[in-house]
Every structure is written in C-alpha cells, then in structure tokens.
Amino acid sequence: MKHVKKENIDKENSITLTHQILLQQFNHRVLIPIDEIAEPYLNLSRRTALNRAKTHYLPFPCFKIGDSQKSPVVVHLNNLVNYINQSVAEEKSNWQKFQIEN
Predict the structure, then answer these.
(1) Domain of 66?
(2) How far is residue 40's CA from residue 36's CA, in Å, rounded to a whole number?
C-alpha cells in the first residue's frame, strides 16, 4: 500500500476561497454547464464555448452527462477552480516581474 503524506491529502481536499465562492454561486452543484460560465468566466458566447468544449479547446476538460444530444456539456467545479487559481497565479507572477524593488 502506498503511503501518502498527510499534507498532500490536506492540500488535495482543501477548499479554497475560490471553491467557496463558486459553490455558492452555482448553488453547491459540482457539475457546471458550460452555458453558465461561457460569458462571465471565458468571455465567449454560449455557442463558441460549446464548440470549443466539443473540440477540447477550452483550458479545462469538459464532458457530456448522458448520451442524448440534448445532454448538457459540463465542467467539474474543481477544474474550473484550478483554471481560475492558475490564471491568478500566472498574472500575479507576471505583475511581480514589473515591480520595482526598494
């Protein structure tokens, strides 16, 4: 049996502020339809976001629930949180490069 450090478990299971806010925004749903995040989080129209999801061109994995053509394309909340947090970290790093040290 593989032993995993407790700190790794805690890190994987921790709920960030981003998690908390998105859980509240999406009524504690874990699977979020692409339709609901296209405009506010991707700055894309619904149709463009769906097309990109189908061609795996979005910055996170998406999938359909069910086999029906009418089944919604969704993203798991954790993947959306990771995307947002990674974007924030990258921009913070870029911003810090331009700051003058005293």
Answers:
(1) 26-97
(2) 8
Residues ≥6 apart with Cβ < 8 Å to 84: 18, 22, 41
Q: How many CB atoms lie within 10 A of CB 53?
A: 22
Q: Is residue 1 part of a domain?
A: no
d(CA 31, CA 49): 16
What value does the mean pLDDT take over residues 67-74?
92
Give a yes or no: residue 85 inside a domain.
Answer: yes
CA–CA gap between residue 73 and residue 66 (Å, rounded): 10
The number of CA neighbours under 13 Å toward the Cβ of 1 is: 3
pLDDT at 8 (0 to 100): 44
